[in-house]
Amino acid sequence: MPGSDVAGVVAAVGSDVTGLAPGDEVYGELAGYRGGLAEYVATPPDLLARKPAELSFTDAAAIPQAGCIAWRAVHETGKVRPGDKGLVNGAGGAGGAFVVGLAKHAGAEVTAVDRAEKADHLRRVGADRTVACETEDWATHPDHRERYDLIVDLVARRSPYRVHRALRPGGAYYVVGGLTRTLLATLAAGPAIRWLTGKRVRVLVVPQSRDDLVAVTRLVTTSAVVPAIDHVHPFDDVPRAFRRLASGANRGKIVVEVAAGHADRPGGPGPTRPPRA
Ligand SMILES: NC(=O)c1ccc[n+]([C@@H]2O[C@H](COP(=O)([O-])OP(=O)(O)OC[C@H]3O[C@@H](n4cnc5c(N)ncnc54)[C@H](OP(=O)(O)O)[C@@H]3O)[C@@H](O)[C@H]2O)c1
């Protein structure tokens, strides 16, 4: 069953679980990135974090995977500094919007690449410049040559030997998602590119981490970044939610609400909700 991210209320805990109890409000990513589209989920407790009271269940459900990718890309691994120039490829999806928001908050100037029709959305999530992927190839266009300190690619399909041209000396390109053959080519070519150019061209492995989740959530609760949420759908409406996702029309996360008005009751036990479609 799909759905990697959940937010809800603990209904029951195993006899050896400490630190969580029925009624606790929690959110997080499910092990194996699956199973969230359900009234109840069973999950090891170590990936769940306590939901801050000021965070809605809807926002909490939209953070885990996208937020943790962005946290790794911008802070843990990418180490963006004020004044850096960043490019996010595939910035119109949930992960990309979070990367744009975090990079902006870290003080970077951000170029966001996606389909032309998403340009307004990209500016709304914080991009300084937008590039339409249908008409401009940032990897070869002279305007982008040796421009970026950090490139985060959520839809990688270019040869690793092309993408590094857009990096400044010492810059880093991280693949987060994309074609399997491109991920494998990036893994294989990265060390040689580093040796030849001094630039880092790598696959970014994003572990499922409660610490990362808590860290990125702090930026949401202090309003430094806002999760991009496209629509909140009731559980009965999941087929329509998937059609929207498959069409590419969504601008950010689609959240599915399993039991409106039930799990929101503070402290009251209820089903886990709402997973990401
Ligand atoms: N590395 C790790 O450890 C790790 C961990 C978890 C997840 N992931 C991966 O991270 C990615 C998450 O990304 P996401 O959820 O943000 O994906 P997403 O929602 O599918 O967003 C991708 C965006 O890129 C756009 N796009 C499509 N083709 C493009 C092109 N040629 N150039 C520029 N933009 C293009 C898409 O537009 P349309 O929708 O209109 O096509 C969409 O707006 C997934 O691939 C997932 O597998 C990686």
TrEMBL record:
**Would you tell me the protein name for this molecule?**
NAD(P)-dependent alcohol dehydrogenase
> From which domain of life does this come?
Bacteria
Q: Which residues form the Enoyl reductase (ER) domain?
A: 1-256
Tell me the InterPro entries matching this sequence.
ADH-like_N (IPR013154), ER (IPR020843), GroES-like_sf (IPR011032), NAD(P)-bd_dom_sf (IPR036291), YIM1/Zinc_Alcohol_DH_Fams (IPR050700)
Q: CDD domains from the xrefs? A: MDR1
- Organism per entry: Myceligenerans salitolerans
